[in-house]
Specification:
Radius of gyration: 15 Å
Distance between the termini: 36 Å
Number of strands: 3
Largest sheet: 3 strands, parallel
Structural class: alpha/beta
Shape: globular
Number of domains: 1
Order of helices and strands: EHHEHHE
Number of helices: 4
Helix content: 40-55%
Strand content: 15-25%
Length: 92
């Protein structure tokens, strides 16, 4: 359409295990704050965070084994986080 520029696709960034762990555990507050800013940018459509099932499995394993959290306490925050606007899980 004349006069309108096509909406640019957001930059895609891979979200690895450490990114989610810093945010969920807040064990390194400065890094957790940086991740929160990334999540906000993703929520506004500025960027798209992409992850995969292996990362999700590694997060659960780390939270349960290293942080000694019960499985039930790891599920809800992880589901909410991975279903957030601007976060996508790649399949196969």
């Amino acid at each position: 359409m004349p006069g309108k520029s096509p909406k640019a696709k957001p930059e895609r960034l891979f979200a690895d295990t450490n990114l989610f762990l810093r945010y969920l555990t807040n064990d390194v507050p400065a890094q957790a704050d940086a991740v929160e800013q990334l999540l906000r940018r993703a929520a506004t459509g500025e960027i798209l965070l992409v992850t995969n099932s292996l990362v999700i499995a590694e997060i659960v394993w780390t939270l349960e084994s290293f942080y000694e959290l019960a499985a039930i306490s790891t599920t809800r925050p992880l589901v909410i986080l991975t279903r957030s606007v601007g976060v996508r899980r790649k399949t196969a």
